[in-house]
Amino acid sequence: MLREEKMTMNMPVFWLIAMVVLLIVEAAVPGLVSIWFALGSLGALIAALLGAPLWLQIVWFILLSILSLILTRPLVKKYVNSRVKPTNADMMIGKDCVVTEEIDNLKGSGAVSVSGKVWTARMENENEQAQAGEVVKVLRIEGVKLIVSK
Fold first, then answer.
1. What is the mean pLDDT of residues 52-76?
2. Which residue among 28, 58, 117, 149 is buried most deeply as judged by most CB within 10 Å?
3. What CA–CA distance (Å, rounded) separates 122 from 149?
4. CB proximity list for 129: less than 8 A, separation 6 or greater
5. Residues 32, 77: Cα–Cα separation, whole Å
6. What three-state secondary structure class fits 50?
7. Across residues 36-64, what is the average pLDDT?
8. Phi-psi category of 137—alpha, beta or left, where left has phi over 0 and alpha has psi -120 to 50?
9. 135 or 4, greater pLDDT
10. Are 38 and 26 in contact (CB under 8 A)?
11. CATH architecture of structural domain 88-149
């Protein structure tokens, strides 16, 4: 029983250390990875300070960690960690452009001028070609090449 009392007395220290370590990890790693568990540790710390038994502290830790993860993860994912980075190049899609160098997919050649900039270009249809001076439409961007069609 003495050992159990000693362990119960050390639990606030354990939860405090866990919370600090999780916050340090959160600060050191890009993106949000452990903030939810730090919140769970805070809940367990409060429960420990109020004299809750160990099993209840663990329940609070798990419950608050999962709840905060479920409630905030979609928002965090949407606003903080989005991988799609729109660029000015996306504005080229749908625009008409002028062929400056014959576009031949088999030869791997071709260039177009759009909005005053010259881009490497390929035809969407492998069998098509476009001669210098023709007007084509930008369908999409693949890497650094514009995919065009007549």
1. 89
2. 58
3. 9
4. 102, 103, 104, 105, 123
5. 9
6. coil
7. 93
8. beta
9. 135
10. yes
11. Beta Barrel (2.40)
What's the confidence (pLDDT) of residue 1? 45
Tracing tokens 């830790």 back to the chain, one arrives at 61
Q: Which residue has the tokens 């639990």?
A: 11
CA-closest candidate to residue 49, choices 15, 21, 4? 15
Rounded CA separation 143/75 (Å)? 30
Q: Copy the structure tokens of residue 98.
A: 């002028």
**Residue 108 identity:** G
**Whether the predicted model's global pTM rises above the 0.70 cut:** no
Phi and psi at 135, nearest 5°, equal -105, 130
Q: What is the dihedral of CA 51, 53, 54, 56, to 10 degrees?
A: -100
pLDDT, tens digit, for every residue of 78-120?
766 555 555 666 777 888 899 999 988 888 889 998 888 888 8
Q: Can you tell me the distance from the alpha carbon of 86 to that of 92, in angstroms, rounded to the nearest whole number?
A: 12
